[in-house]
Amino acid sequence: MSENIVSVNNLSVSFDYQENFLSKKQKIKAVNNINIKIKKGSFFGLVGESGSGKTTLGRAILGANKISTGNVIFHDDERDFDLTTINSKEMKEYRKKAQLIFQDPYAALSPRMTVRDIIAEPLEVMKITNSREETDARVRDIAAKCRLNLEHLRRFPHAFSGGQRQRISIARALVSNPKFIVADESVAALDVSIQADILNLLKQLQHELNLTYLFISHDLSVVAHVCDIVAVMYLGHIVEMAPSRELFSNPKHPYTKALLSSIPSIDPENKSKAIELEGEIPSAMNPPSGCVFRTRCPHASPDGKEGNIEMRLEEVEPDHWVDRCGVSCG
Amino acid sequence: MTHLLEINNLDVKFDTDEGRITAIDNVSLTLDQGKVLGIVGESGSGKSVTAKSIMQLNPGNTIYNDNAEIIIDDEDVLKFTSKNDLKKIRGGKVSMIFQEPMASFAPAIKIGSQMVEQLMIHKPMDKKEAKNISIDMLNRVGIADAEKRFNQYAFELSGGMRQRAMIAMALSTMPKLLLADEPTTALDVTIQAQVINLMKDIIKEYNMGVIFITHDLGVIAQVADDVAVMYLGSVVEQGPVNEILKNPMHPYTKGLINALPDINNLDAPLTPIPGNIPSPLDRPSGCVFRTRCPHASKEGKEENIEMGLVEVKPGHWLDKCGVDCGKI
What we know:
heterodimer, A: 330 residues, 2 domains, eight-stranded mixed sheet, 10 helices, globular, B: 328 residues, alpha/beta, five-stranded antiparallel sheet
């Protein structure tokens, strides 16, 4: 039995793009040669700015995006699911094991269904339960675990605030008893006072239900608090990956350093200036050759020799992986 | 000394199908030239409504109270009767930067034309002069290739670039007062850092007054001189930013700070503020925070308290109910 729940090997995902019907078809590489192993029971964080490919990677692991090269393997207790060769029958089985919590709790819930129906829908679609009583019992059970009032089950989503809605989304994701959850920016739309509540709930459920999370976020301080291990993505590549304490106390890649220094400090006297990165993240349609970060890197050499470097993670300290170019450039 | 902006006893109510909603309750604020006043609060706290009241941008179902005053440069905005009066304020003396830069530019008109148009409305100048000033301003906010960008549409610019263009447009008329409503919220952190540094430089250079609205206490700590913390339409605590963030006294301010994940202290537990923000339709009577306050009394005597700020230390204002509720 493997200690990992998900292994991603040399994964690339590209999309076809055509500017207009006369122009040539292009391929956009959204995710490029990614290798990660997600340990069972871990809270795996994925951070990066918009356009870095974190959502695409999460969706590829769930089988919602086509895999171009490489593979994704999900290790269940009895068997493995290979997402590259999975057929539709296996996919149905896989959906029970791996679920997604969305970002916007206002868009994710149908306004015309009661909370009970929303949470029960996966059970009915996946034909997990056999009778209405059984379904109701499962719904009540998971709703209580997500700290929803049983009163609430009869109401419609519009009656709830953002935090409560997010708890409904979580209950729906967990009702099929999955083992692996992708939480894609699941607290980004919430107010800070509510955000802490949802993060605590996710943590608590992780222990109660033996869950493994892939937690996608742009907010480094949130990731630092909840995740055990963090991977930093930039333009489709992972540039650094380490246990979260190690990563936040000892960042090695210039991009990670810049990200960390960009978080505005709540201490007004701490005016330490952010390492200002020049410009913006380049378009994925036309990524820089070699080290993708070189166009914004403060250490890039004037002769542009980073253009010929092949990106690859190296283990600089136990479990601390940094992109090759980032190891030497500091 | 007269203040650049003085808001006195402002109440704002909206008439809706479900009844009359109180959006702002008895808010008084002052702002001097060259200062940045931060307004923090969660969704529904009335931060944006306050800013929109200054520009008179609230919708038609808005009701202001009779004794409210919003005084800019000795003129009361709420007493204006004609659109021409408002023109002096909107885009002239006061400019506003919104959260979503894509929504603030007209999509089918070139950025440059929009900049020139608003400049010519407010300043007596010809098209050529307006164009030169606009391009200068685009250069000033760090947009490379300003001349090319001047002739582009909003969709051709990236998010950070659009927000820079928005700032350039807002500042080109040399306003005395800038209202920035969540100007960095839609941006990535590295871009946010760029925009904050840019705004700080420009505020200093032009010596204007700024109201900076955000839900992010970190951003407030870095840009503001003073801060007002709002909850459900009321200011619950107010004072110099250093004092308020280091020595918060109101349970809501404390709660907000404790709920924030601190990257320098990963062992600290995340403490949410219990409960949910009440709907504005059933705004609690008395102290608005009492339904979520950890110090609220069992018999609910906060229901009858009238809210109002008192000065607990020089410059540090705190809502009456918050003064002793920590001690009971």
